[in-house]
Amino acid sequence: MTSKTRYVVAFRSTRAPNSASIDLYDADRLAHEEAASAGGLLAYWFGTPLEGINLATCIWQSRKHAR
Predict the structure, then answer these.
(1) Which of 7, 18, 49, 67 qualifies as a cystine partner to 24, CB 3.0-4.6 A?
(2) Which residues lie closer than 8 Å to 31 by C-beta, 6 or more apart?
(3) What does R_g of the chain's alpha carbons equal in angstroms?
(4) What pTM was estimated for this model as a whole?
């Protein structure tokens, strides 16, 4: 069995205290769309913002794609 290396990128998004939560969700959704169109994306998770913070995680098939 051959082991394959995968590259994980996680980032935390924050928003200004007076901005709407949907703004952060939309920003993460757009980042997901851009990542998906770039090629090499295996998985991308982002959730519903909680108290102005959201965590997104991507798994890429190569270091080149992750960069």
Answers:
(1) 49
(2) 46, 56
(3) 14
(4) 0.70
Structure token pair of residue 34: 């851009």
> Which value, to the nearest 10 degrees, does the dihedral of the CA atoms of residues 52, 38, 62, 67 take?
-60
Helix and strand counts by DSSP (H, E) for the chain? 2, 3
Overall size of the chain counted in residues: 67
For residues 64 and 62, give the distance between their C-alpha atoms in angstroms, rounded to a whole number.
5
What are the tens digits of pLDDT across the range 16-48?
777 766 677 787 788 889 989 989 999 998 877
Nearest of 58, 2, 52, 6 to residue 31 by alpha carbon: 58
